[in-house]
């Protein structure tokens, strides 16, 4: 059982470039979420999804897009990368929204130059 | 909006001693309080959680207490070991779809 898989593990972008961070889970969880982790700020919710075709904004959604076409996959898109988006990004899933334990991937470390 | 404050930001203990990490939350509707451990280069992993209808929960060397009146909850680790060294996050959820995390505590256990 792989759990939550994130790719790539590391990425360096130039300002203005776009990219997609991939997230896949094999636990058949309906709820998936994206967080960013910055020093001294814990994890902040970017977007979440409660099932295929349904997404909503978290605390810090600006500059990011998501879609959920299947239960397994929940990609995060940066349309025009900015240095302020330099961070470590974590994808998570759970069987019952935010009131159940979340299973996290190992993260994508993203640097924007 | 909901806010979770976590203290201390850094904690250093001797192997075998106890470690306590404290969190406060602002939204009285919060009813689920998980604790996560994050090791270097890894994602956070749930170590224990507590719901608002329970005051205390224990799992071997780890315990969590909840004071709903004061909106405080704490993580207690007894008989600490070097492998307990990591970053610990508390979190709170109101039962919707958003979890608010504390800023984290970096725990060092000295052998």
> Ends of chain B: how far apart?
41 Å
SSE pattern of chain B, N- to C-terminal? EEEEEEEEEEE
Oligomer: heterodimer
Per DSSP E runs of 2 or more residues, the count of β-strands of chain A stands at 11
Mean pLDDT of chain A: 95
- Low-confidence runs of chain A (pLDDT<50, min 5 residues)? none
How many helix segments of chain A? 0
| Share of residues in helices of chain B | under 10%
Described by strand count, sense and barrel closure, the largest sheet of chain A is: 7 strands, mixed
Shape of chain A: globular
- Indicate the structural class of chain A: mainly beta
Largest interface: A-B, 27 and 27 residues
Poorly predicted parts of chain B: none
What is the share of helical residues of chain A? under 10%
What order do the helices and strands come in, and which of them pair?
The complex is a heterodimer of chains A (about 110) and B (about 110).
Chain A: E1 4-7, E2 10-13, E3 19-25, E4 31-37, E5 43-51, E6 54-57, E7 64-66, E8 76-78, E9 87-94, E10 103-104, E11 108-112
Chain B: E1 4-7, E2 10-14, E3 19-25, E4 32-38, E5 45-51, E6 56-59, E7 62-67, E8 72-77, E9 86-93, E10 99-101, E11 105-110
Parallel strand pairs in B: 2-11
Antiparallel strand pairs in B: 1-3, 3-8, 4-5, 4-9, 6-7, 7-8, 9-10, 9-11
């Amino acid at each position: 059982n792989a759990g939550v898989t994130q790719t790539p593990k590391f990425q360096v972008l130039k300002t203005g470039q776009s990219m997609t961070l991939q997230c896949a889970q094999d636990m058949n969880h309906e709820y998936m979420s994206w967080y960013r982790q910055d020093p001294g700020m814990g994890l902040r919710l970017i977007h979440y999804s409660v099932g295929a075709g349904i997404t909503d904004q978290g605390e810090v959604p600006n500059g990011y897009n998501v879609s959920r076409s299947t239960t397994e996959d929940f990609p995060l898109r940066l349309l025009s990368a900015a240095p302020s988006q330099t961070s470590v990004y974590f994808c998570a899933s759970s069987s019952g929204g935010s009131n159940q334990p979340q299973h996290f991937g190992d993260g994508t470390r993203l640097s924007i130059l | 909006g909901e806010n979770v404050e976590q203290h201390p930001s850094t904690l250093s203990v001797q192997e075998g001693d106890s470690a306590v990490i404290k969190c406060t939350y602002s939204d009285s509707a919060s009813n689920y309080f998980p604790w996560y451990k994050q090791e270097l280069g890894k994602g956070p992993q749930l170590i224990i959680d507590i719901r608002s209808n329970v005051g205390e929960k224990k799992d071997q060397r780890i315990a969590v207490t909840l004071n709903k009146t004061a909106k405080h909850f704490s993580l207690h680790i007894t008989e600490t070991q070097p492998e307990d060294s990591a970053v610990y996050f508390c979190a709170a959820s109101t039962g919707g779809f958003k979890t608010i995390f504390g800023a984290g505590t970096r725990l060092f256990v000295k052998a």
